[in-house]
C-alpha cells in the first residue's frame, strides 16, 4: 500500500476516493469475484458509491444487499481501543473480549501484538467524525433504492452472524 494512503489512515482521515476506487476496481476484476463478492468498508463516501455503481453497470452486476452494523459509539470505542493485531500473521485480538493466552503474544505464531495507529482513542474520535460527515449520508443513499438493511451489532458475535445469514438467505 502507498505511503500516502498510510498517512491518511494513520490520521483517521479517509484515503482519497480515486485511490480507493482504483484499488477496488482492480480487485473486483479478479477471477474469484465472478460469482459475487462482499465489500467491507467500501463505499465510504457518496463519490465512491457512485463510482461503484458505474463499475457494476459496466460488468453487468448489481448490489443485492447493503448491511449497516448498528452499534453505540461507546461500544464501538471499547471494541476498537482494545483491538490488537499480530505483527507477523495479522490475526486480530481484543484485550478483554478475545485475549491471547499470553499477553502481547500471538497464539497462532508467537508474533508480537500491537495496536494500530488509527485505533488509538484520539484518532478513533476523528474517524467517528469522518464517518458522520462522509459515510453516514450513504444510509439515505441506499435506503432510497430499498437496499439498506440494519443489523443490531451490539449482540454476541454468533447473534450478529445469524442476523447476517438471515439477510443474505444462507441460514
Ligand atoms: N472506502 C474507503 N475510503 C477511504 N478510505 C478508506 C476506505 N476504507 C478504509 N479506508 C482507510 O483505512 C482506514 C481503516 O479502515 P477501517 O475499515 O476503518 O479498518 P477496520 O475495518 O479494520 O477497522 C480508514 O480510517 C481509512 O483511512
Ligand atoms: Zn500471529
UniProtKB/TrEMBL annotation:
Q: Where is this region: LID?
A: 82-119
Instruction: Write out the catalysed reaction.
Output: AMP + ATP = 2 ADP
For AMP, which residues are the binding ones?
Answer: 13-15, 41-44, 48, 116, 127
Superkingdom, taxonomy of origin: Bacteria
Question: Which compartments is it annotated to reside in?
Answer: Cytoplasm
Residues annotated to bind ATP: 83, 155
**Which top EC class is named for this enzyme in its record?**
transferase
What the entry lists under InterPro entries is as follows: Adenyl_kin_sub, Adenylat/UMP-CMP_kin, Adenylat_kinase_CS, Adenylate_kinase_lid-dom, P-loop_NTPase
Taking every annotated instance into account, which residue ranges of this chain make up the domain Adenylate kinase active site lid?
Answer: 83-118
- Which Enzyme Commission numbers does its entry carry? 2.7.4.3
A single GO molecular function, which one?
kinase activity
Q: In which pathway does it act?
A: Purine metabolism; AMP biosynthesis via salvage pathway; AMP from ADP: step 1/1
- Residue positions annotated to bind Zn(2+) are 86, 89, 106, 109
- Notes on the domains: Consists of three domains, a large central CORE domain and two small peripheral domains, NMPbind and LID, which undergo movements during catalysis. The LID domain closes over the site of phosphoryl transfer upon ATP binding. Assembling and dissambling the active center during each catalytic cycle provides an effective means to prevent ATP hydrolysis. Some bacteria have evolved a zinc-coordinating structure that stabilizes the LID domain.
Q: How does it assemble?
A: Monomer.
PANTHER family annotated for this entry? NUCLEOTIDE KINASE (PTHR23359)
Per its UniProt record, what HAMAP family does this chain match?
A: Adenylate_kinase_Adk
Into which family does the record put it?
Belongs to the adenylate kinase family.
Q: What does this protein do?
A: Catalyzes the reversible transfer of the terminal phosphate group between ATP and AMP. Plays an important role in cellular energy homeostasis and in adenine nucleotide metabolism.
What is the recorded name of this protein? Adenylate kinase
| Species in which this protein is naturally found | Geotalea uraniireducens
Amino acid at each position: 500500500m502507498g505511503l500516502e494512503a498510510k498517512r491518511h489512515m494513520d490520521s483517521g482521515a479517509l484515503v482519497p476516493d480515486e485511490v480507493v476506487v482504483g484499488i477496488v476496481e482492480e480487485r473486483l476484476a479478479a477471477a474469484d469475484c465472478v460469482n459475487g463478492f462482499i465489500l467491507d468498508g467500501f463505499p465510504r463516501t457518496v463519490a465512491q458509491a457512485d463510482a461503484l455503481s458505474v463499475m457494476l453497470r459496466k460488468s453487468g452486476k448489481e448490489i443485492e444487499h447493503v448491511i449497516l452494523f448498528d452499534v453505540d459509539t461507546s461500544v464501538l470505542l471499547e471494541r476498537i481501543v482494545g483491538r490488537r493485531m499480530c505483527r507477523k500473521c495479522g490475526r486480530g485480538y481484543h484485550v478483554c473480549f478475545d485475549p491471547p493466552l499470553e499477553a502481547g503474544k500471538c497464539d497462532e505464531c508467537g508474533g508480537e501484538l500491537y495496536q494500530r495507529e488509527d485505533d488509538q482513542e484520539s484518532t478513533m474520535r476523528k474517524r467517528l467524525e469522518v464517518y458522520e460527515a462522509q459515510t453516514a449520508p450513504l444510509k439515505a443513499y441506499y435506503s432510497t433504492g430499498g437496499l439498506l438493511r440494519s443489523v443490531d451489532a451490539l449482540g454476541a458475535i454468533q447473534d450478529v452472524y445469524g442476523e447476517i445469514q438471515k439477510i443474505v438467505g444462507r441460514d
